[in-house]
Description:
It is a single chain. By secondary structure, the protein is mainly α. The chain is built from seven helices and no strands.
Amino acid sequence: MKIVAGILGFTVLLGLAVFTVIDDSASNVQSLAPMSATFRGLYTTAAATCPGLPPEILMAIGDVESGHGSNDGPSIAGAVGPMQFEPSTFPEYALPIPVGGASPPTPWDPTDAVYAAARDLCANGARNGVDLPGAIFAYNHDTTYVANVLGVAAMYTAQDAVTGTANAPRPNTRK
């Protein structure tokens, strides 16, 4: 029952985020950062390690945090890499090293960073879609950030529905 409620809650929040993005489009035009097939593949395969975590959430975080690696920081707060991890937080979610990751893992490596972000979200409510907004809030303690990520995720979901990208074959990221 909690899983159904969590998924239903995410669906409602996603719908509200889409409405907000559309409603604000005249005054606050948002666009999606260009995303390589490599990053799309990483987001998709990393999300699959956490049942209930939509890859669009990882895509949105990667977009908001660094434009999918185009601005790896460091930020004013000291966060680094494509998923903008605080160096003190990254080790908690860095292991196990994913296929293609760096050894030792580093927040600067896209593979390490995306998989660590998926683990962070999963550990904080994303598993089985129980509390996606709470998981995003745990990732970055800012309610505006949560709304922004949900809005960007809704844009990716809508884009994938229009282009059929969500059902397209994913690049094989295993070596």
